Amino acid sequence: MNTFFFADTAVLLGRSLRHVTRSVDTIITTTILPIAFLLLFVYVFGGAINTGTKSYVSYLLPGILLMTVATGISYTAFRLFLDMKNGIFERFQSMPIARSSVLWAHVLTSLVANVVSLVVVVLVALAMGFRSGANVWAWLAIAGILLLFTLALTWLAVIPGLTASSADGASAFSYPLIFLPFVSSAFVPTATMPGPVRAFAEHQPVTSIVNAIRDLFTQQPVGSGIWIALAWCAGILVGAYVLATITYRRKIS
Question: A Pfam family this protein belongs to (predicted)?
Answer without folding.
Answer: ABC2_membrane
